[in-house]
Design a protein that fits this description.
19 helices, Cytochrome p450-Terp, domain 2, mainly alpha, binds coenzyme A, globular
């Protein structure tokens, strides 16, 4: 007889096969060559289409429905890997050997014991704060507690200060394509005599990244418990990262199915190209602010409803619809009001989002342990079917990751306010991996704004203004 874990693996591999068949007619992308800067690309508002850097961390292909971390496709990682292994892969660029993985897991576990940070956090009015707000604060407390970075004389290591000072470059100057701010070297005698760079301290960067990956989820869990009038718990050495996360939130030892589904949800959210929170994290890191501040920026960016948070809206919609019969009239009303159905469509994916393809069947599996939630799942299935048949297939609007992630977290017993923090708990692996990669060859991010204002206006004293 197949175990539940084997069933999960089979469901993931079946999803992979369906994805392969459905997108077989789309051409496979060619491996990109190393860029020769400056690049020519068409840029839309919000930097859409701009290529800001090279990366080997991850890749998204909207037409094929591909999500790739360090060369491995997401289906294989979900079928065979764990969040700990995927985090190692993202940070180090290679799969760990058994002994390395063991050490890495132990490191994460040790870093997860952040009692002092939780105690400090409890001194703030976190009962009146959103979990995302508390996460942002918690990341800052981790920073000062662990790295003493807020001590009066602490300064970020100036390893690359030259490329951090760009404002003397006239805005009219075309990008030269240099990866370093050689302009500064050429233009300043004093600068030219500067000491050679010390280089980026990757070892401490890796330690800080592990600290953040371990800590963010613990803070989210602790805050959620405090919001429910419960005391935070300490992680257990016998549980995996995913198992501990469920335990720290709910106080229950998860079933093997729950633990594995949580593990897969974490894997699926770990990285997704140059999305807004990843970019925000990298922009802050590129100024040589430390990685804790940088991750704080990622958390802030993720808190916005245009980025994280759509899964909360999905659950609200499903509850509002209430029953399978009401799905069709609900959609008709939504479309008549020119509204969007939450959890459908994606800026990049014009094929079925591979993350939703995996999470959908897993939500179906979790339902077996929570039969009372069957009606909600039935509404979700009917909503998917109806959207696809009314306009989805024609407009290439498919369920996205948020459609099923909220349901999964809800089935695991998490409050809605934890959905976006769970995203952060996982994405911190991608944020830090991309920062570490970018720091190897840092150049401060500095796009331009197109000035469309006036010139030559004269100052009119206040009393003379009509
Ligand atoms: C994610 C999103 C912003 C992408 O938007 P986008 O890239 O502008 O989408 P497109 O322009 O390709 O949309 C094409 C068409 O599909 C429609 N469409 C896209 N998503 C839709 C949705 N969720 N519900 C209904 N119609 C949708 C658009 O209105 C547009 O219709 P039109 O051609 O008649 O004007 C959008 O799909 C959306 O708002 N989805 C709901 C929110 C959500 O789930 N967000 C989480 C994303 S991970």
């Amino acid at each position: 007889m197949k175990t539940d874990i084997e069933t999960i693996q089979r469901l993931v591999l079946e999803a992979a096969e369906t994805a392969r068949k459905e997108t077989a007619s789309e051409p496979e992308p060619e491996k990109s060559r190393k860029a020769k800067w400056p690049l020519t690309c068409t840029v839309g508002p919000g930097l859409e289409g701009a290529i800001a850097c090279e990366s080997k961390v991850g890749y998204v292909n909207g037409a094929k429905g591909w999500l790739v971390y360090r060369g491995y496709n997401i289906f294989e990682l979900c079928a065979y890997s764990s969040f700990e292994e995927v985090s190692f892969l993202l940070l180090h660029g290679k799969m760990p050997k058994a002994v390395e993985l063991d050490l890495f897991k132990r490191k994460l576990f040790n870093y997860a014991r952040i009692n002092k940070v939780i105690m400090q956090l409890m001194g703030f009015p976190i009962d009146q704060m959103s979990v995302m707000g508390a996460l942002r604060l918690g990341a800052n407390l981790m920073r000062s507690q662990y790295r003493n970075l807020d001590k009066a004389n602490a300064r970020p290591a100036p390893f690359d200060a030259i490329s951090a000072d760009e404002d003397s470059i006239a805005m009219e100057t075309l990008p030269s394509g240099s990866e370093r701010a050689t302009f500064e070297f050429r233009s300043s005698v004093r600068r030219a005599a500067a000491k050679p760079k010390r280089g980026f301290d990757k070892a401490s960067g890796l330690e800080d990244s592990c600290h953040l990956i371990a800590g963010i989820s613990c803070i989210a869990a602790a805050v959620s418990r405090i919001h429910n009038g419960l005391l935070p718990l300490e992680p257990r050495p016998d549980l995996s990262f995913a198992g501990n996360l469920i335990y720290l939130i709910t106080g229950r030892q998860p079933t093997p199915v729950q633990e594995r589904v949580m593990d897969i949800a974490l894997i699926l959210h770990a990285d997704h190209g140059m999305n807004a929170s990843t970019f925000a994290t990298m922009v802050v890191a590129s100024t040589l602010a430390d990685i804790y501040f940088s991750v704080g920026a990622g958390i802030a960016a993720l808190s916005g409803p245009l980025h994280g948070g759509a899964n909360e809206e999905v659950l609200r919609s499903l509850r509002e619809i209430g029953s399978v019969e009401k799905v069709k009239p609900w959609i008709e009303r939504k479309l008549a009001e020119k509204g969007k159905v939450s959890g459908f469509g994606h800026r990049v994916y014009k094929a079925y989002d591979p993350r939703a393809r995996i999470l959908g069947p897993l939500a179906g599996l979790l339902i077996k342990e929570k039969p009372e939630l069957k009606p909600l799942y039935a509404v979700a299935q009917k909503l998917e079917e109806t959207v696809l048949n009314t306009f989805g297939k024609e407009k290439k609007i498919f369920p996205n990751v948020d459609f099923y992630s909220g349901l999964i977290y809800s089935f695991l017993g998490f409050d809605d306010e934890l959905f976006t923090p769970m995203f952060a708990a996982s994405r911190v692996a991608g944020w830090t991996a991309r920062v570490l990669e970018y720091m190897e060859n840092n150049r401060i991010f500095r796009p331009r704004g197109l000035y469309i204002g006036e010139f030559n206006k004269r100052y009119v004293p206040l009393k003379l203004r009509a």
